[in-house]
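Entry 14. Ran structure prediction on the chain below.
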Amino acid sequence: MALRKVKSRLDFVLQITNYFNGHWEDPEWGRRPANQVLIALAIRDLASGVGDAALQKQILDAADKAIAKNAAAVK
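Output, structure tokens:
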């Protein structure tokens, strides 16, 4: 299955996670560092829709920490 052209970062993240989910029956999916980075990127992108500025900042800070921690663990 070829990946289609995407128009946004969120569309890209959702397409990649769907690709992995549809091609491997892996009970560990989502727990590996590379998958955690993808999940945190999706959460970060979705946080832009949160109306409460303080809550949005907390979500972005948490997602950024998860991205930094897991990106360092990707080999």
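The chain has one domain: 9-20+28-73. Will compare against last week's run tomorrow.
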